[in-house]
Amino acid sequence: MPSDPRFSIVTCTWNSAATLGDTLASLASQSWRDFEHVFVDGGSLDGTLDMLAAYRGNKRILPGVGGGISRAMNHGIAAARGDIVAHLHADDYYAGPEVLAQVARHFDATGAAWVVGNIQVLRDGELAPPYPMQPFSYRAYASGRTSIPHPAVFVRRAWFARVGGFDPSLRYAMDIDLWLRLAFTASPAQLDLPLAVFREHAGSVSSSNKICARQEEFRVRRRHARRAPLAFALYCLRYWKRMQALRAASDMSP
Question: Which residue(s) pair with 173 in the sheet?
Answer without folding.
Answer: none
